[in-house]
């Protein structure tokens, strides 16, 4: 699937009155500008004049003044309200702030945000490093794993790179160690394992090249594209890679499983949610989520 027109036409930012509210509103309004999107600010809680005045003041400080912005106030369970709003308001992208662990330079997703990434019908952007003044996005990493929704995520990554002016896009193919199926015991088996690795890398890179080939050249113009094959646990490996190369944004497929066993035994994106390496953009196929 190749994106046509704007994939993120309506953005929802669910906010609380935290110390980072101003900076999150400034960053979110900036993203809405680059995506040419309508922005809905939603507070699940009571509406007071003091709160209204604070939001109005923050919006006046936003970089771009021509945005289509609405502020909604609703009371109830935060998860239920946000999930329902995403459906009823045809939200394409939900933006949430992630929190920093105390005394550590790591970020984590709170229980509400973690549940929302599983339940909402739209894509989700988790922000860990919003800023008052714009920090250009220079490098984006996107998963290239062999999965049905990967073409959608790669297409989205190109759209995002173009919208944000990011010059570098790296597509990471995570290859499971078990796929090598060679036990290294001596020099001969080591050589065999290396040959198998090269064949797997070639196969994965060829598969990704076919996806990229179908993307219009106009969407790839000015973007340096890199393929990177890595061996290891899915989710954990790409998260580590994004941290090592200091990517500004990591784009991932939405989790396909949400059962209790998947929460007990982490997989794929759960590794990343437990220790965010950078801002995380989770691409969800709206059609699949509604069926």
Radius of gyration of CA atoms, rounded to a whole number: 20 Å
Report the portion of residues in β strands.
Answer: 15-25%
Query: How many β strands by DSSP?
Result: 12
Task: Please work out how many helical segments DSSP would assign.
Answer: 11
User: What is the correct CATH architecture of the largest domain?
Assistant: 3-Layer(aba) Sandwich
Run of helices and strands: EHEHEHEEEHEEHEHHEHEHHEH
Shape: elongated
- Kindly report the CATH topology of the largest domain: Rossmann fold
Q: How many domains?
A: 2
Level of helix content? 25-40%
Mean pLDDT over the residues: 85
Low-confidence stretches: 260-266
* Major beta-sheet overview: 10 strands, mixed
Structural class: alpha/beta
Task: For the largest sheet, list the strands in their spatial order.
Answer: 3-2-1-4-7-12-11-8-9-10
Task: Give the N-terminus to C-terminus distance in angstroms.
Answer: 18 Å
3D architecture notes:
This protein is α/β, with parallel strands linked by helices and 291 residues long. The chain has two domains: 1-134, HUPs (Rossmann fold, 3-Layer(aba) Sandwich), CATH 3.40.50; 136-249, HUPs (Rossmann fold). The chain contains eleven helices and twelve strands. It has helices at residues 21-34, 49-60, 78-88, 111-119, 150-164, 187-213, 217-220, 236-244, 260-264, 269-274, 286-289, and strands spanning 10-15, 38-44, 69-74, 93-97, 99-100, 107-108, 123-127, 139-143, 168-175, 224-231, 249-253, 279-283. The strands form two sheets. Strands 3-2-1-4-7-12-11-8-9-10 form a ten-stranded mixed sheet, sandwiched between helices. A two-stranded antiparallel ribbon has the order 5-6. Helix 3 (78-88) runs parallel beside helix 4. It is elongated. The two termini are 18 Å apart. Residues 260-266 have low confidence and may be disordered. Residues 51-126 form the UspA domain. This is Nucleotide-binding universal stress protein, UspA family. Belongs to the universal stress protein A family. InterPro entries: Rossmann-like_a/b/a_fold, UspA.
């Amino acid at each position: 699937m190749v994106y046509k027109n704007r994939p993120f036409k309506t953005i929802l930012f669910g906010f609380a009155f935290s110390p980072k509210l101003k900076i999150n509103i400034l960053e979110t309004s900036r993203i809405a500008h680059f995506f040419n999107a309508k922005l809905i600010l939603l507070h699940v809680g009571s509406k007071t004049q003091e709160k209204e005045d604070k939001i109005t003041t923050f919006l006046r400080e936003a970089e771009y003044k021509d945005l289509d912005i609405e502020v909604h106030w609703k009371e109830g369970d935060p998860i239920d309200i946000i999930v329902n709003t995403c459906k009823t308001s045809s939200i394409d992208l939900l933006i949430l702030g992630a929190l920093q662990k105390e005394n550590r330079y790591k970020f984590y997703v709170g229980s509400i945000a973690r549940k929302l990434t599983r339940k909402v019908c739209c894509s989700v952007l988790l922000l860990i490093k919003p800023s008052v003044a714009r920090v250009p996005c220079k490098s984006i990493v996107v998963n290239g794993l062999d999965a049905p929704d990967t073409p959608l995520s790669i297409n989205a990554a190109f759209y995002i790179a173009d919208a944000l002016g990011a010059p570098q896009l790296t597509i990471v193919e995570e290859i499971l160690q078990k796929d090598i199926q060679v036990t290294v015991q001596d020099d001969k088996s080591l050589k065999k394992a290396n040959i198998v690795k090269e064949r797997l890398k070639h196969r994965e890179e060829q598969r990704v090249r076919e996806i990229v080939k179908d993307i219009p050249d106009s969407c790839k113009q000015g973007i340096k594209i890199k393929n990177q094959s890595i061996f290891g646990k899915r989710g954990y490996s790409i998260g580590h890679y994004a941290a090592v190369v200091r990517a500004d944004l990591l784009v991932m497929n939405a989790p396909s499983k949400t059962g209790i066993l998947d929460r007990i035994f982490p997989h794929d994106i759960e590794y990343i949610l437990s220790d965010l390496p950078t801002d995380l953009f989770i691409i969800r196929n709206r059609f699949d989520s509604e069926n």
